[in-house]
Design brief:
Elements lengths: L13 H10 L5 E3 L6 H5 L7 H6 L3 H9 L14 H11 L7 H14 L10 H14 L5 H7 L2 E5 L9 H9 L4 E3 L13 H15 L6 H17 L4 E6 L9 H12 L6 H22 L2 E6 L1 E2 L4 H7 L7 E2 L5 H13 L5 E6 L5 H7 L12 E3 L9 H14 L19 H19 L7 H23 L2
Parallel strand pairs: 1-2, 2-3, 4-5, 5-8, 8-9
Antiparallel strand pairs: 6-7
Helix pairs in contact: 1-18, 10-11, 12-13, 16-17, 17-18
Length: 471
């Protein structure tokens, strides 16, 4: 029986061990999509406790706690202490076996705090005290210190077009050695299905762009002005959180009329919403292509399913799920529209539904044009899929239908400064996958091919992202 999570964790063959330890383990991290708070980085935030660092805002853990019968006051409640919340998590951890949270929990304790004991009710108090002592007294256990500890080279946060990016500017002016770059996330600029909020957003955009917005043309000019500002601040990616792709036919007059209705707070019909979003996705795609950015599409979730808890806690609190959307044809139509105009830039498609893996793996092949290796990417296993099975299924689909060798690899997609071990997790899964193929005689591992395999591992873990994004 193997020891739990030893140095060869998830590595089932000698070749896998060699690939990981000699070609993947110590490479820097390019975290090109996350939800870290740039203010916390700029302030070099020191966490008051492991609870703030670990459990604050982590809806993965919140879902597990609820499933284990823990009262909400110990999850998001303000009336309970950090210790009480941590104690409930320690009680829950032994029940998470076979959930990736069990591995992530212990990887994070080990890599950040040097703690090899397993977290459970018997060890909770000791681990809580040790973590808190390090967080309070170790000068390197801050937001920036944790990023340095994990060998992070680049971080791309997620930012609305109206954001000031003041904290990114502070970091740049200060000369912080880790690049912290913004990512353009214009979802609210498409959300005409919420007309009151959309009207308020237009006013905030006008203020941010320092110009009046009286019509749709002004709206586009203001967005372009903010896009240019993001470019000046080092932005190289956009990101779109959508349920499905939009590629409806429309006329420009229809779009102007829909905008005018929503800007006045009037309700728009579902077909009008789809047409407006179709137009805006094209607009943003063209902007990105002209700037040489990479556009990312995270599609497929059903969000905020629990209306009672949505009213109580708001979005992003652990009440989302995998959706089923028949969106392949609209995705193809959207990409083709941009491609036909010569405006299809580098693109990453992420699906939350693993049943669509082969759909995406074949879709990206339709629009590779020879200009950039892996120009259209199938993004790594996302959200409910960033675990062993999900990562493996994503890489298998990409391998059989495209070129795994050109894959830009893993990201955290996280709000936590302790999520970087997910890169380690991914690298172990990758090396194990390739190592087993080698040992099964499916991939040669001598001469030129041995060097190619080793380079492929290094590329997927680091080099491909570095070259693709050109930070």
């Amino acid at each position: 029986m193997k020891e739990f999570m030893d140095k060869d964790f998830l590595l089932e063959t000698e070749t896998a061990k060699d690939l990981y330890h000699n070609h993947a383990e110590n490479l820097p991290i390019i975290d090109y999509h996350c939800h870290l708070d740039p203010k916390m980085i700029a302030d070099d935030h020191r966490f008051r406790s492991i609870t703030e660092l670990w459990l604050g805002g982590d809806h993965y853990k919140w879902r597990a706690l609820r499933a284990n019968g823990v009262d909400e006051k110990y999850i998001t409640g303000k009336e309970t202490s950090d210790w009480e919340k941590f104690e409930k998590w320690a009680e829950t951890v032994p029940y998470t076996m076979r959930n990736p949270l069990y591995h992530w929990t212990h990887l994070e304790l080990r890599t950040a705090f040097g703690i090899n004991e397993r977290l459970n009710p018997e060890t909770a108090c000791e681990i809580f005290d040790k973590c808190n002592d390090m967080l309070q007294n170790n000068p390197d256990m801050t937001a920036r210190g944790l990023m340095r500890k994990y060998g992070v080279e680049v971080v791309c946060t997620t930012d609305d077009p109206i954001d000031s990016l003041e904290h990114h500017k502070r970091l740049r002016d200060e000369g912080f050695e880790i690049k912290v770059l913004p990512t353009w996330r214009p979802d609210k600029a498409m959300a005409v299905e919420k007309p009151a909020e959309f009207a308020a957003y237009i006013a905030m955009l006008a203020q941010a762009a320092d110009m009046p917005i009286d019509n749709f043309d002004d709206f586009l000019k203001a967005l372009q002005k903010r896009h240019d500002f993001f470019e000046e601040m080092g932005c190289r990616l956009s990101d779109h959180g959508i349920s499905e792709f939009y590629a409806e036919d429309y006329t420009e007059d229809e779009i102007k009329n829909i905008f005018a209705k929503a800007a006045k707070g009037e309700t728009v019909a579902p077909e009008e919403e789809a047409k407006f979003k179709s137009r805006m996705l094209e607009v943003f795609g063209e902007m990105d292509a002209e700037s040489g950015w990479t556009q990312q599409f995270h599609y497929g979730p059903i969000r905020n399913n629990n209306s009672k808890m949505m009213a109580k806690l708001g979005p992003d609190t652990g009440f989302d799920s995998i959706g089923e959307f028949n969106t392949a044809s609209s995705c193809a139509k959207f990409l083709d529209r941009l491609n036909s105009k010569g405006k299809l830039g580098k693109t990453i498609l992420y699906t939350i539904n693993p049943s669509a893996n082969e759909v995406i793996a074949t879709m990206i092949g339709n629009f590779q044009d020879g200009s950039t290796p892996g120009k259209i990417q199938f993004g790594s296993g996302w959200w409910f899929n960033d675990q062993i099975d999900g990562m493996t299924r994503q890489m298998n689909a990409l391998s059989t239908q495209g070129l795994l060798s050109r894959f830009v690899g893993m990201l955290t997609d996280s709000r936590s400064f302790l999520s970087y071990p997910r890169h380690e997790y991914f690298r172990r899964v990758l090396c194990n996958l390739v190592g087993k193929d080698i040992e099964n005689g499916e991939i040669p591992y001598t001469g030129y091919e041995k060097k190619r395999v080793e380079k492929m591992i290094e590329d997927i873990c680091y080099n491909n992202a570095k070259e693709y994004f050109k930070f």
